[in-house]
Amino acid sequence: MKFNTALSFFLLSTCVLFFIKESKYYKSLNAIIISGVLFLASLTLLEYIFSINLGIDTIFIKDTSTTVLPGRMSPITAVGFLLLGIAIWGMQSKKKQTNKRTQFVFIVIILFSLFLVLSYFLQMPGEENLNFINSAAFQTGLMFFLFSSILSLKNASKKFYNLVLSKYAGSKLIRIIVPYNFIMILLMSFTLLYLVNNNIVSFNFGFIIYIIIALIVSIFYIIGIAVQINKRDLEREIFKNSLYQTNFELKQFKQALDESSIVVTTDANGIITSVNDKFCEISKYSRDELIGKTHKIINSGHHSRAFFKELWGTIKSGKVWIGGIKNRAKDGSFYWVHTSIIPFKNEKGEIYQFLTIRQDITSLTMLSSQYENLQLKNKEIEQFTYIASHDLQEPLRSIRGMVNILKQKKINEIDEVTNNCVNFIDRSTTRMSSLIKGLLDYSRIGADKVLQEVNINEILNTIIINDLSGNIKDSNATIEVGQLPTIKVYKKELHLLFLNLISNAIKFHKKDLNPQIKVSVDRDDQYWKFSVTDNGIGIENLNNRNIFGIFQRLNRRGNFDGTGIGLAHCDKIVYLHGGEIWVDSELGEGTTFYFTIPINLN
Q1: Residue 562 region by backbone torsions, left for phi larger than 0, else alpha for psi between -120 and 50, else beta
Q2: In whole angstroms, what separates CA 346 from the centre of its chain?
Q3: pLDDT of res. 107
Q4: How do residues 157-203 score in pLDDT, each as one tens digit?
Q5: 171, 352, 381, 515: which could form a disulfide with 509 (CB 3.0–4.6 Å)?
Q6: Which region among 104-118, 332-346, 363-377, 446-460 has the lowest average model confidence (pLDDT)?
Q7: What string of DSSP letters covers 479-496?
């Protein structure tokens, strides 16, 4: 390689390095260097064209090894530098059209440099018609090829890179076929020329073998590519079918969601991007009126700023918010919705949109409100019952006091009619006092309820020993108590429940048979099931009576004393515990009362 050739490569390499810099200084320096290379190449061509010596061949260093035109680069080398300098200059242009033309210049340089390299590589320097091209050194052609190839890739457009490097089938085909064509053609051509130049085979025979081998290799290569493509197409078809099925299922899910729920999506700032028909239906707004707005358009004013601040704090942290919201429709009507807001995140973990799913619970909310009002009314009734029963006791006490005074009169001082009236008033006031006390006790059930762990056997022992000992002794009753559990209940109320059931079992016994009472319990997954069984007279017309209603009596009033409130107490106490109570009885065969208490009462 001549010195001027090496110098030109060095200068152009420097230009490429300066090309990275963006400052005007480096751009100006670049222009000067490229101009110098172009000037040097142009003068060299003039020397060849006009057969003159301008003294530039040995201006930097004296060539003593070359006898013919010492120090002068070859004409093809000068043409190469002329084209390469123009191409590097064109690379720096910001015009797309100039960049495209520059790419053609690089391709021309690549082609002639490749031809130069291959002519040496394939032992062709002796061809007389190629003296102009072969006048350049092998390493010069190699440098031109590398230089122009690298800069061509640098100057190539994004479309070119996408065409070659993308994941699409066409790009993959290019990456598979091009290396084969280049390597196989080069290798087979070199082999053919080597065999021909060394007289191993004749050109005609070698050319036929070349074609046969090329066809065979190409056929097998194409078959191999076809197999790979078919395999990928099969995988793509399977994936396509799976994707279709998944999309079909998603479509069904979306249809079910749209038909059952109010659905809306918003961006990260809460701007509505899409709504379904149910949202428009319940809000009375059209899609055009909703999309692009925020949910302020349906804000009812019912909720505080703190409520929405907590809502946004939850969803902005990436968590799902669930709760009830009161909204206002376009016509001014209000509606309640059970709302779930789900944040969607991208690959970076950033929230980019929210999906909101709602159910209309307006009717349920109204029922809940009515239930609360009903509870309030019941509480007011209980308070009224307590006050009324408490206040009614006072005049009864006065009447009973006057009756007692009359009873203290000597029997001869009052006639028989007056005496019967006094006895009737006494019995009536006594019964009325019992009824009022029963009402008072009924109203007080659950007033100060406190759950506590209670041993049921201890409650039964207290009832048997303290509360009903006289009744048990008088009736000669036998009470069998099984092993009962320790559970969480309202102790005072449960004590009253067992007291009423056992006292009733003693009261309604057969005259010729001692009462036998059994208290037991069974357990399932959710409840304790208690039973109180007796051998008494049973209940008449059980199926036609609501025996747990207030003032309902099990038997005729004349046969047994009582107010008819005891079982109403039992029913209220069991309901207070969240259980159920029922009875199984036959007239003359005894009675069993069942009731349940939840295991996990809280």
Answers
A1: left
A2: 12
A3: 85
A4: 777 667 677 777 777 777 777 777 777 777 787 787 778 778 888 87
A5: 515
A6: 363-377
A7: EEE--PPEEEEEHHHHHH
CA distances in angstroms from 152 to 81, 183, 470, 570, listed in the order given: 15, 21, 116, 98
Residue type, 322: I
CB distance 62 to 71 below 8 Å: yes
Nearest to 195 by CA among 209, 211, 174: 209
pTM over 0.85: no
Phi, psi dihedrals of residue 318, rounded to the nearest 5°: 90, 10
- pLDDT (tens digit per residue) in 507-562: 888 888 999 999 999 998 789 999 999 999 988 766 645 677 655 555 554 455 55
Of 102, 112, 99, 100, nearest in space to 144 by CA: 112
pLDDT of residue 117: 75
DSSP letters along 184-243, please? HHHHHHHHHHHHHHTTSS-HHHHHHHHHHHHHHHHHHHHHHHHHHHHHHHHHHHHHHHHH
d(CA 103, CA 157): 9
Pairing outcome for strands 516-523 and 478-481: parallel
Tell me the residue length of the chain.
Answer: 602
Q: DSSP E strands: which ranges in 482-589?
A: 486-490, 516-523, 527-534, 581-586
Pairing mode, strands 351-360 and 516-523: unpaired
Mean pLDDT of the chain: 80
β-strand pairing of 590-598 with 581-586:
antiparallel
CA distance 362 to 326: 9
